[in-house]
Amino acid sequence: MPSGLNAFMRIDRVILPVPDVRLAAEWYVHEFEFQIARTGSKEIDLNVHEGETLLTLTESAENQTFRPLPHLDAEGHVPCFNFYTHWEDLHGGWFESRGIRITEMMQTPYMNVCEMTDPFGNVIGICHEKSNSLFYTPSSGPIPPMFHRVLAVFLPVRDLESSIRWYSDVLGFKLHNHWGQGADLVIGAGETVVTMICMDEKPQRQAIQAMKGRAYYSLQTSDIHEAYRKLSTMGVTDGPCRQQNGVNMFHVKSPEGLTIRISEKELIQVG
Question: What are the VOC domain coordinates in residue numbering (predicted)?
Answer without folding.
Answer: 149-265
